[in-house]
Amino acid sequence: QVQLVESGGGLVQAGGSLRLSCAASGSIVSDNAMGWYRQAPGRQRELVATMSAGGTTNYADSAKGRFTISRDNAKNTVFLQMNSLKPEDTAVYYCHIRLVPGGRRFEDFWGQGTQVTVSS
């Protein structure tokens, strides 16, 4: 029903920046939230940042002040600008969308992930 494709990951030095992008395709309803999660080796997947179609944002404490999530609703695309990167930000970053069809249960979809590596 829905496909998510991430891009923009890579290798950067501590203090550097990366901008992740994720484009959603398929049956996208207007009531939705898109965001980013990450999973480092040996750790659980954790929320980084989310943004609803209406503009409501949610950030992990570790991301506040350094990362910025944004959306282009017309293109069903979400971005994550990551500044002042730290080695502890190293993880696979996954794009996520939650759809809330009118009168139906919400549905979650995930991208394939993009690797972010921050060297010290």
Report on the structure:
With 120 residues, the chain is an all-beta fold. 0% of the residues lie in helices and 57% in strands. The protein has strands at residues 2-7, 10-13, 18-26, 32-39, 46-52, 57-59, 67-72, 77-82, 91-99, 107-110, 114-119. Strands 2, 4, 5, 6, 9, 10 and 11 form a seven-stranded mixed beta sheet that branches. The chain is elongated and about 50 Å long. The termini are far apart. The mean pLDDT is 96.
Can you tag this structure with a few keywords?
mainly beta; 4-stranded antiparallel sheet; 120 residues; 7-stranded mixed sheet
Instruction: Tell me the radius of gyration.
Output: 14 Å
Low-confidence stretches: none
Helix content: under 10%
What's the pLDDT, averaged over the residues?
96
Strand content: over 45%
Strand and helix map with partners:
Layout: E1 2-7, E2 10-13, E3 18-26, E4 32-39, E5 46-52, E6 57-59, E7 67-72, E8 77-82, E9 91-99, E10 107-110, E11 114-119
Parallel strand pairs: 2-11
Antiparallel strand pairs: 1-3, 3-8, 4-5, 4-9, 5-6, 7-8, 9-10, 9-11
Short description:
The protein has strands at residues 2-7, 10-13, 18-26, 32-39, 46-52, 57-59, 67-72, 77-82, 91-99, 107-110, 114-119.
